[in-house]
Design a protein that fits this description.
alpha+beta, 8-stranded antiparallel beta sheet, 3 domains, 3-stranded antiparallel beta sheet, JmjC_dom, metal-binding, Jelly Rolls
Length: 374
């Protein structure tokens, strides 16, 4: 099951019917959310790690609290560390009704890093993850709307949401296993009742047509760096006429623009500019010398790979980078990508000799696509 299927029930139906258009609520088996980010893991980050701002912020009754109320300073090897979370102050503020916001969780919590990577691969748009821990009988933020699409799912407790659409306001009770999608600009607010609440919010920062158009227009406009003449407004008719000539030149260049190349470059930047997914990578590097023809290997959890041919080279877009191999290895790479469980380099024997199979597998381990089964 893909991440989008998990969160929406049916990825294809969701993209056809709700994506960007209407609120969508779905129920997830609670076991499917286990370990993604629950109350024990939130406790761990607050009380047992050196988490810092802006990874954490706090809000209460519609206002963001000053960082000085829940941070401290320390030193390591004589160098200052600022913005460290003071866990005792955080817990005291939480007990007094403040919401704890975990920001950019995909950057420091591996299960959400993998979830976000999978969503990005399916949607083709950048995603991020926050989490909101609210005490009983409290509200962190007033009615507001976001400048991006949101998928929210509950992992602990309960929270009453008020969401607005063209038909007015509606109430949605979020409990563990509830997932809800809100299109960009949907007004919403939420409040706890008798229990605390922890929910994860996945923000989808959808690319806009202007993002793609700018890839073509900006280089043309930026090349027009000659200054306007002195006494600019002394002869406004002349300036207007010259401006028309400049616009005509822009139009001529736009007419000859290579739109296919622009789309390819846009796609390549996205496919190679995501955050790395390298959990266990250190142990894999240490295991590399011992990897042989019968070693058990598998796809790294959360890894992605898109193939693009360019002449005699095959590009493997791994999310955070591009790796190139000879194009005649395409069938072999596709065989690797098709494996759903553990396998050995010997599986590649129909395409490669034993030595070449081990060399390729070692490279794909080093690049983070594969991992050693331990």
């Amino acid at each position: 099951m893909s991440q989008l299927d998990l969160l929406t029930g049916d990825a294809h139906a969701f993209l056809e019917e709700a994506w960007g258009r209407r609120i969508h609520v779905h129920t997830i088996p609670a076991t499917e959310l286990a370990g993604i980010f629950d109350i024990e893991q939130a406790d761990h980050l607050i009380t047992q790690t050196a988490i810092r701002t802006p990874q954490i912020r706090m809000a209460q009754d519609g206002s963001v609290l000053a960082e000085s109320r829940y941070t401290r300073q320390a030193t390591i090897a004589g160098k200052p560390m600022t913005g460290l979370i003071d866990s005792r102050k955080v817990l005291d503020l939480f007990a007094d009704g403040a919401t704890i916001v975990f920001q950019g969780l995909q950057r420091y919590w591996e299960p959400l890093r993998q979830l976000v990577r999978g969503l990005e691969q399916q949607l083709g748009h950048p995603c991020q993850a926050n989490a909101y821990l609210t005490p009983p009988g409290s509200q962190g933020f007033a009615l507001h709307s976001d400048s991006h699409d949101v998928i929210v799912f509950q992992t602990y407790g309960a929270k009453e949401w008020e969401v607005h659409d063209d038909n007015g306001a509606r109430q949605v009770l979020m409990v563990p296993g509830t997932s809800m999608y809100l299109p960009t600009g949907t007004p919403h607010m939420a409040r706890t009742q008798n229990t605390a609440s922890l929910h994860v919010t996945l923000g989808i920062n959808r690319y806009l047509w202007r993002d793609l158009v700018k890839k073509i227009v900006d280089p043309i406009v930026n090349s027009m760096d000659d200054p306007l003449p002195g006494n600019v407004f002394g002869d406004s008719a002349s300036i207007a006429a010259t401006l028309r000539e400049k616009l005509d030149e822009v139009a001529r260049q736009l007419a000859w623009s290579d739109t296919e190349q622009a789309v390819q470059q846009f796609e390549q930047t996205f496919l190679s500019g995501r955050q790395s997914v390298l959990g266990g990578g250190l142990m894999d590097r240490l295991s590399l010398p011992d990897v042989g023809l019968t070693s058990a290997i598998r796809r790294r959890a959360g890894s992605t790979c898109q193939l693009r041919e360019d002449g005699d080279r095959l590009g493997l877009y791994l999310g955070d980078r591009v790796v190139t191999v000879p194009a005649d290895l395409r069938d072999t790479v596709e065989l690797v990508l098709a494996q759903e469980g553990a396998f050995t380099p010997a599986l590649l024997g129909d395409q490669l000799d034993d030595g070449s199979a081990v060399v390729l597998v070692k490279r794909l381990i080093r690049e983070g696509l594969l991992e050693v089964v331990r």
